[in-house]
Amino acid sequence: MAEKDKDKEKELTEKVVPDAEELPKTIVRRVVKEKLSQLATDSEISVLRDSLQAFCESARIFIHYLSATANDICRESNRQIINAEDVFKALEEIEFAEFISPLRACLEEFRQKNPGRKSASSGSSKAKDTNKKAKRKPPAQSEGRKKRREVESNRDEDDAD
Fold first, then answer.
1. Where is pLDDT greater, at 157 or 59?
2. SS3 of 85-110
3. Its pTM surpasses 0.70
4. Known Gene3D superfamilies for this protein (predicted)?
5. Looking at the domain that runs over 18-115+123-160, which CATH code has it been given?
6. pLDDT tens for residues 42-85?
């Protein structure tokens, strides 16, 4: 009986996040190991399963937070498609501005390697967005962003205590 309870508990703790939302562990492991090997060149780095799970979950939460903020920015601009500039603005808003310039460089490199692809931010849609911005006032922050900022400031206050 106790073994059955342990199996149920293990099952509940393992499936907190649906499979569709999980990041591929092999890719996360590779990224973590590559970065750690750059920092510590003297030995081989191994990552425990719990650590790998923590990296995966942290990355998933960051992606959700960044995409929700970028979505709010996009909606405030009366658009339905998130573009790279929305992501850059979201990074700045969630106080990760130091990522913007390396990401811009990666995006430019990607665009040079894939010249046939057209992004939503290029061409006539960009001109339309510019005209819209010139005609209307800056939008107020959405409720979702206000709520996230409140939660974030409460978390910062709790950390200070």
1. 59
2. HHHHHHHHHCCCHHHHHHHHHHHHHH
3. no
4. Histone, subunit A (1.10.20.10)
5. 1.10.20.10
6. 777 788 899 999 999 999 999 999 999 999 999 999 999 999 99
**Residue-level pLDDT at 36:** 86
Supply the DSSP string of 28-93, one letter for each residue.
HHHHHHHHHHHH-TTS-----HHHHHHHHHHHHHHHHHHHHHHHHHHHHTT-SS--HHHHHHHHHH
- Give the C-alpha separation, 60 to 70, whole Å: 15
| Cβ neighbours around 91 below 10 Å, total | 18
pLDDT digits (tens, 9 = 90+) for 113-122: 998 776 544 4
Instruction: Give Cα 48 distance to the centre of its chain.
Output: 23
